[in-house]
Amino acid sequence: MAVTEKSWFLYGAQGTGKSRMASKVAKKLGLNEIVDPYYPGDPIKPSGVLYVCELPPTNVRRVMHIEFAKRLTRTGA
Fold first, then answer.
1. Entry pTM
2. Residue-range definition of the domain harbouring residue 61
3. How many distinct structural domains can be found in the chain?
4. What mean pLDDT comes out for the span 36-65?
5. Is 65 domain-assigned?
6. Does 5 have pLDDT greater than 50?
């Protein structure tokens, strides 16, 4: 199946549960790959990937803070 969903960055401070939540978030967003951790300067695929990091790159538009991700996965939105 071809992935059509754009890639996202899940970010937040160390120890906030980003890695633990990554699979739930990726599933909600329709993404099939997780890169954990993402380091600045690593290549970025335009679609299908959830990148987990402490701070997202400044040149990307699809970012989600861990607190929003927790609400998203808890509410079933």
1. 0.90
2. 8-75
3. 1
4. 95
5. yes
6. yes
